[in-house]
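Structure catalogue
Derive tokens from sequence
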Amino acid sequence: MVALHGLVGISMVKNEADIIEPMIRHNLRYLDSLVVIDNSSNDQTQATIKAMCTEYPDRLFLRQDSSVGYPQQQILNDLITDLASDNGIVCFVPLDADELIRADRDLFRETLLNEERPIRFPWVTFVPTPDDEPGQENPVRRITHRRCEEPKQRYKTTFPTALVGKAELKPGSHGLIPKNRPGKGVRGLFSRKRKRKLDLKPRTVEGLSLAHYPVRSKEQLLAKVVIGALNMRLRTGGKTAEGFQWHELAQSIMERRGMTDEEFYYTAKHYADAPPISLVHDPLTMEQADLILRYPAEDPAQLSFKLMGFASDCVDAFRSYQQSGKQGAASRL
């Protein structure tokens, strides 16, 4: 990988073929470079990123990961540590595949390049409606309504390189926490006193936000929710509240054997939040060159293939676990 500098986006993705192209094109207008880790996608995601790497040499980079359970937090923190040795990087910008920067470019760059504290970007959630143009392949052009306000405001947080080694990303990149938190007892008490000066409270800047497109089609939602919920169960054993809305929705989808169009639009509008929620027509401004997709998803749904791929990954991981267990037992004989 070439030497990186300035503002570097980092993203871990899986099965995001319908939105990965506009996400990359749009965000690279703000960032100096973008490093994407593909977690064994079973759709067109990886092929699209590879094709786009030839368009953005020295700016777009693809890494591959085959971990089961989608351990995003650990992988992104490891990536930051790995890349931080490049002294030209000023700030890391964690982005999911469904997040597009919503800001004046000059304000965005000036703020992040001159701030050693974390900057947080509020989510502005865009929602599909029955009025969307059904034949429009680009979801950012198709989905033009957003929530007037977020019932519970959520944020994504930047990671200035000045904090590398001192802090790490929270799950979902929603904030930073001290690295190697002190334990309990007398030693932990003195450790906490020594670390109190580390200020990880992020700053909010008017005019900087993220356009968030978590729901884009019925098929995409079904795959996202079911596979997402199963991945979290694999990773956490169901012991944390992470992704609670996915677990509840996945259970409902499986019990109802899918969802009607009416249920889909209602779910999209209230995704991760409770009613009442009102919408306003306010499409994200995009560059003219980004409006037409060059690599449209051949089949944006591919629900069956995504589920089959996920099942195959689980079987491979279980087989590997069984084999390692047998080898361990043999070594003890």
